[in-house]
Amino acid sequence: MTQTQTQAKTKTRRKPLALLAAALLAVAGAFATGAVATAADCPSGEFCTWEHANFDGQRANWSGDDGWWESWIADTDSSWANHGISGPGVKDHVIVYEDAWQGGAATLCLTPGQEVGYNGVANDRGDSHTWAMSC
After folding, report:
1. Are 88 and 55 within one domain?
2. What pLDDT score does 31 carry?
3. Which of 26, 102, 112, 135 could form a disulfide with 92 if both were Cys (CB 3.0 to 4.6 A apart)?
4. Which range marks the domain in which residue 4 is found?
């Protein structure tokens, strides 16, 4: 077999591998795109919490501080999203507290744009929250 024939045969063998690699990358890209579509449904400028994990169930949302959450969401919060607006000098972090009037321990602190589908430590513990400059 000549050198030209050997090179042609090697290229022919590599082609299916290249096609397989391209197909795997396309599938991986589809999965990555699907993950973005499950983002929390929380209005811009608001902090939201849901009664169930993964942003499911009834949602409560606020644009400011709340020292005493309504009874249906207090101690039943299981997922959270901070869709607050950021800017110089803007309180854009949200701190969730285990007691009313921002008392007790902080159960969770969310940075701007952060969404938490579930957190075992913070689950069913929130009673109030405040917007802050940092965590």
Report:
1. yes
2. 32
3. 112
4. 1-37
pLDDT, tens only, 27-86: 333 333 333 335 899 999 999 999 999 999 999 999 999 999 999 999 999 999 999 999
**Residues forming beta bridges with residue 96, ordered by sequence position:** 108, 129
CA distance 48 to 55: 9
Domain count, the chain: 2
Residues 109, 63 share a domain: yes
Structure tokens at 119: 């957190």
Beta-sheet strands, E only, within 17-113: 47-52, 56-62, 79-82, 93-99, 103-110
| pLDDT given for residue 11 in this prediction | 47
Q: Are 33 and 65 part of one and the same domain?
A: no
Assigned token pair, 87: 């800017």
Is 117 a member of any domain?
yes
Q: What is the pTM of this model?
A: 0.72
